[in-house]
Amino acid sequence: MTSPAAVAARSVDIDDRKAPEDCATMVDVRQGVDALDRALVTLLAERQRYMDAAARIKPNRDAVFDQARIDDVVAKVLAAAEPAGLSPDIAEPVWRLLIDRCIAHEFAKYDATRG
Ligand SMILES: O=C(O)C(=O)C[C@]1(C(=O)O)C=C[C@@H](O)C=C1
User: Fold this and answer.
1) What's this model's pTM, rounded to 2 decimal places?
2) What is the ipTM of this complex?
3) Residue 94 belongs to what domain range?
4) Is 50 within the bounds of a domain?
């Protein structure tokens, strides 16, 4: 088990990483990946809090699963992925799984607070 202190000692600030094109070693690559993963965790935790808000605001439990909104979210992600250079083969399955897990979280939150 890696201690939190050891993890912190290895960590690279998001602004203190090499651009992918400038990486010369696998240490550079992995420091960049680890830094981005921490940034993504922060963003995903904030996205999760919007699910908490949705569970508080939606009019009823049936509104938690919204297929039209899922289609809209995936379409917007794919539209943003293209100019950003993110492969749709990564973006689409990642977001479909993310939405699926977010729906499960939203149902759990709804049931815990309003069920
Ligand atoms: O937009 C909503 O209604 C949400 O609750 C967000 C979200 C998502 O993860 O993007 C989650 C559940 C819905 O079924 C659709 C989309």
Assistant:
1) 0.90
2) 0.99
3) 26-113
4) yes
